[in-house]
Amino acid sequence: MAAGGHGWPGTGQRSVRYGGLESLTRKRVTSFLLIALGLAVAVVLVVRDGGTPSAYAHFAYAPVALAAFRFRGLGGFVTGLLGGAAVGPVAELVVSGTMLTVPAQYVSWSVRASWMAVIGVTLGHLFEHARRQAGILDWYRFTDRGTELPNLVGVRRQLALRLEEAPGVERIVVVVKITNYDHLLATFGYEGSDQVVRGLGQQLRVKLPAEAIVGRTGNDELVVVEPVGPEIATTQLPPVLRELTGSSLYGGHIHAYVETALGVMRMRADAVDSEAPFVQAAVAAARAHEEGAGVAYYEEEREQVRRDGIHLLSELPGALEREEIVLVYQPKLCLQTGRFVGVEALARWQHPVRGWLAPGAFIPLVEQTGMIGALTAHVLERAIRQTRLWHDQGLAVSVSVNISTRNLTSGSLLQHITDLLEETGLAPEALELEITETALMDVYRAHLDQLARLREQGVRVAIDDFGTGYASLAYVRDLPLDTLKLDKSFIRSAPEQRRERQILRRMIDMAKDLDLQVVGEGVEDAETLALLMELGVDQAQGYHMAYPLAADDVRPLLLQSWSGSGPAQRISPST
Ligand code: C2E
Ligand code: MG
Ligand code: MG
After folding, report:
1. pLDDT of residue 52
2. Can you list the residues of the chain whose pLDDT is less than 50?
3. CB 197 within 8 A of CB 252
4. Are 488 and 352 in the same domain?
């Protein structure tokens, strides 16, 4: 580190900020005059007071200290000599003359002069030392140690100066996120990675115009702030940066490949210094990375939706505790018997401010976090207890619970379900777990182990929304499954479209060959229901038979169906 010799952000920067060379000269002249005045005042006071042992002699130290502060050791030394010379002869020290061959006043003169010079030079060095320490502290405050580029505080300070000097200029903030930083770290360690980032920063510095500010705002993050015309922001700069950062480069002696994603935030012309544009550019860079795009621009509306989502997520633990996550149950009709033989448990959030939230508004967000574990545990517990209650009332329905990929990878699902079944005494066969086709395709086979073990206990497993992904039946054949739920989008078009109908028929036949039970979901009319019956589908679920309802409202439906006065008539194709 070159704390003393750093061009940025040394103490010299301040003289620019507070008025430049002219003001510096003015300050020196003022100091000089003050020193001279101080010395004169000390001499006058001492002389008027009659010399030794006048306390006024000490007044001479003030100009010496000022000179040391302003003109360093040399200034302190010279002023000390002058001060001693001026007051020495009058302000005699009391010395015994017997041992001296020179008159006492000369001894007094020389002792005072040299003593004050020593004090002056010492003070000068102390001030200088303190100044250097302050410079080092400044360096640490404003500079990233690994690359010696300005850090966020440093970049903001430079930007604040620019905003002061040239207000009203439109600027863009570009965050260059090094997306393979983890690999660099694993390969080269922290120091090596720093060298690579430093190399990248230096190249940016060279390629970009002098007025661009280049800094490092995070381990894997460089930032560029530049005044731009609109066409540069949208078309020119990102490709330049992309080309530069996408190439192989040398960071010190290290040869590395750097991959980047760029986040661009356009600052308003009347912007003031704040952290916001940097955060926003970083958010855009993260999105560029997530979406696999080279560049992303910060979009307020989109981020507002994201922020809303994050806010909602932060409320979930409290919502679970306050029982705001409630379940509705949608009955499933057996097409052979005309009875509701099962229900699907579907989550709803009774949000105190936003009202009823459908699962689509929060589950996809929750699924991206570990909180899905708590949510699924909550749903499983409520659904299993409720089903046990129905069983106690003589309604032997099964219950389906939707689970997510993360539930399979976390490893606690098996234990949790086993405990719940044991505690409630519900037959494992009465529980079915639904996992969507796309989720199943995402998960490694090794993670299906928990499902396989649950099946061994008797719990059933269904593939949900079948037909929305690209899983073939050949793929499905090897999975631990009992039920195939045909997606509603698939089913809906079948009554009108001959080709769709044929595909559906083939699919159902193949599923049956694989010993899978087939459920059709999203049945909204009698025609579809009739078609499903004709195609040999085992169960149907949809608004035509029943909407998802609160447990208390489902009970009468189940009772009717089990007492024989239920929806059996509805499954007749004529209705
Ligand atoms: P899903 O598991 O496929 O559930 C069926 C969805 O279709 C439900 O939407 C249901 O209300 C709707 N539906 C039922 N019949 C009809 C119909 O005739 N027409 C139409 N248009 N829709 C019908 P919902 O309740 O909004 O749930 C959406 C999805 O959210 C569910 O799809 C499921 O994937 C997920 N989900 C719901 N609850 C949970 C949960 O507790 N955990 C997890 N991981 N996911 C859940
Ligand atoms: Mg489902
Ligand atoms: Mg579904």
Report:
1. 53
2. 1-19, 569, 571-575
3. no
4. yes
Mark whether 75 and 163 lie in a shared domain: no
363 pocket-lining for ligand 1 (C-beta < 6 Å): yes
Question: 260: domain range?
Answer: 152-298
The verdict on residue 14 lying in a domain is no
Residues 174, 137, single domain; the answer is: no
Backbone φ and ψ for 218, nearest 5 degrees, come out as: -165, 170
**Burial of residue 248 (number of CB atoms within 10 Å: 0-12, 13-18, 19+):** exposed
Tell me the residue length of the chain. Answer: 575
| Residue 93 confidence (pLDDT) | 58
Reduce the DSSP state of residue 475 to 3 states and report it.
helix
Strands, E, within 412-546: which ranges?
A: 431-436, 460-466, 483-486, 517-521, 539-541
Q: Residue 335's CB: how many other CB atoms inside 10 A?
A: 23
Per-residue pLDDT, 344 = 98
Structure tokens, 319? 């919502």
Distance 394 CA to ligand 2 centre (A): 25
Ligand 1 proximity of 524 Cβ (cutoff 6 Å): yes
Q: Give the per-residue pLDDT at 540.
A: 97
**Within-domain flag for 563:** no
Q: Which CATH number covers residue 273? A: 3.30.70.270
Count of domains in the chain? Answer: 3
3-state secondary structure of 482: coil
Same domain, 364 and 437: yes
- Please name the helix (run of DSSP H) or strand (run of DSSP E) that holds residue 330, with its range, or none: strand 325-334
Which pLDDT belongs to residue 538?
Answer: 97
- Evaluate: CB of 358 within 6 angstroms of ligand 1: yes
Stated pTM of the model: 0.70
In a domain, 42, yes or no: yes
Q: Which ligand gives the minimal distance to the CA of 400?
A: 2
Name which residue sits closest to atom 37 of ligand 1, judged by CA: 346
Q: Which of 521, 527, 528, 549 to mutate to test the pocket of ligand 1 (most atoms within 8 A of CB)?
A: 521
Q: Give how far Cα 552 sits from Cα of 130, 245, 327, 555, Å.
A: 78, 61, 11, 6
Q: What is the DSSP string of 244-313?
A: HHHSEEEETTEEEE--EEEEEEEEPTT--S-SHHHHHHHHHHHHHHHTT-SEEE--HHHHHHHHHHHHHH
259-290 pLDDT per residue, tens: 888 898 988 888 888 899 999 999 999 999 99
Same domain, 130 and 162: no
pLDDT at 211 (0 to 100): 84
Tell me, in angstroms, the distance from the centre of ligand 3 to residue 466's CA: 8
| Atom in ligand 1 nearest the alpha carbon of residue 358 | 26
* Residue 169 identity: V
Distances (CA, A) of 356 to 1, 13, 139, 350, 530: 59, 58, 54, 5, 33
Element (H, E) at 340: strand 340-351
- 517 and 470, same domain (yes or no): yes
Does residue 437 have its Cβ closer than 6 Å to ligand 1?
A: no
Residue nearest to atom 24 of ligand 1 (CA): 359
343 and 394, same structural domain? Answer: yes
pLDDT at 371: 95
**Is 292 within the bounds of a domain?**
yes
Residue 366, Cβ density class (10 Å: 0-12 exposed, 13-18 middle, ≥19 buried):
buried
Any atom of ligand 1 within 6 Å of the Cβ of 381:
no
**What pLDDT is stored for residue 2 in this prediction?**
37
Q: Does the C-beta of 523 come closer than 6 Å to ligand 1?
A: yes
